[in-house]
Amino acid sequence: MKKIIISMGVLSTLFFGNFYNIAHASSYGINKNGSNEVNVYSARKGYLLKPLIEAFKNDTGIKVNIISGKSKALQKRIEQEGVNTRADVLLTVDAGNLYKAKKMNLLQPIDSDKLKILIPPHLKDIDNQWFGLSIRSRVIMYNPKKVNESELSTYEDLANSKWKGRICIRSSNNIYNQSLLASLISHLGEKEAKVWAKKIVNNFSKKPKGNDRTQMTSVVLGECDITLVNTYYLGKWITSKKESERKYAKQISVFFPNQSNRGAHINISGAGVTKYSKNKNNAIRFIEYLADEKAQELYAHANHEYPIRNTVSVSDVVQSWGYPFKQDALSLNELGKNNIKAVKIFDEVNWQ
Ligand code: FE
Questions:
Q1: What is the mean pLDDT of residues 166-180?
Q2: Per-residue confidence (pLDDT) for residue 314, from 0 to 100
Q3: Rounded distance from Cα 61 to ligand 1 centre (Å)
Q4: Model pTM?
Q5: How far, in Å, is the centroid of ligand 1 from the Cα of 335?
């Protein structure tokens, strides 16, 4: 019965998609204050959003105002501004951050048929308070002169003593690592995840320092053989204006772990409508727009990320690493739920 309902939903979108948009257009539009705009507090870089904002304005007539900042600072600001906030949308990276925003009571649930259809369930909040809009994977990058691809397999295997003194990775206060460990807590259990983290620390080639790009540089310079970093950083290097970065990029290879079982760990950038949004309809419309076909392609290409549906194309650079690859289908709600446990484990195993 459930299956029939879902396929009817999909069918009606296929046949009545245009009518749906027209019907909704009349219920959106100009808000109570008479302004046709939406205010986005964004932890994402301006250049990523610019083409999307322009396309959105052209297609809908709604102006997007961006206030940029770091994720934590923006969340704090929305909290402090309370009912008077200008923010309609919080746009940020990592399900861990979005989960925190929800816990801080900064967001509100959104009932949108379009978002229900466009965003796979594991990429959004169980209460519809935040929605994934692009995917990144945290993968193994290695020096092909030092490592043979056949030696690589899973995240779990990196705990093997054959990697002693060969792994570099950024510090544990970074949300990307916290979310990766949170996923391992879900898959392996807390005890096993802790054993894993301890063994990884034993395999460090040096103390964690710097960001993902610092680790990639270390791989190139021979300071370590493998690292775990987000895919798009290599995309940035490959297409960089700086010759030095393009040169470095050629000396790094990508490996997607756990392809024979659950798939590689993924995370998202995403958004939610703020609790005290004054332009709620426009805010919903903006998020729906970002999740839809046209914006998905622009958005994923701009930062060499992955779209939220594999029917949308990826950039040539991303394609060259192999796409589609098997992605971990774990609900990203788990990353938020296990965050505190992950931080505690990192502390206990002395992963700085
Ligand atoms: Fe990043």
A1: 97
A2: 94
A3: 31
A4: 0.88
A5: 16
Q: How far is the CA of 158 from the centre of ligand 1 (A)?
A: 22
Separation of 308 CA from ligand 1 center, angstroms? 17
Confidence of residue 47 (pLDDT cuts 50, 70, 90): confident
Where in the chain do CATH 3.40.190.10 domains reside?
8-133+268-311, 136-265+331-348
Q: For residue 37, is pLDDT > 80?
A: yes
Cα(93) to centroid(ligand 1), Å: 8
Instruction: Please name the fold of domain 8-133+268-311.
Output: D-Maltodextrin-Binding Protein; domain 2 (3.40.190)
Inform me whether the pLDDT recorded for 158 exceeds 50. Answer: yes
Ligand 1 centre and the CA of 45: distance in Å? 10
Could you write out the three-class secondary structure of the chain?
A: CHHHHHHHHHHHHHHHHHHHHHHHHHHCCCCCCCCCEEEEEECCCHHHHHHHHHHHHHHHCCEEEEEECCHHHHHHHHHHHHHHCCCCEEEEECHHHHHHHHHCCCECCCCCHHHHHHCCHHHECCCCCCEEEEEEEEEEEECCCCCCHHHCCCCHHHHCHHHCCCEECCCCCCHHHHHHHHHHHHHHCHHHHHHHHHHHHHHECCCCCCCHHHHHHHHHCCCCCEEEEEHHHHHHHHCCCCHHHHHHHCCCEEECCCCCCCCECEEEEEEEEECCCCCHHHHHHHHHHHHCHHHHHHHHHHCCCECCCCCCCCCHHHHHCCCCCCECCCCCHHHHHCHHHHHHHHHHCCCC
Q: Under CATH, which number does the domain 136-265+331-348 receive?
A: 3.40.190.10
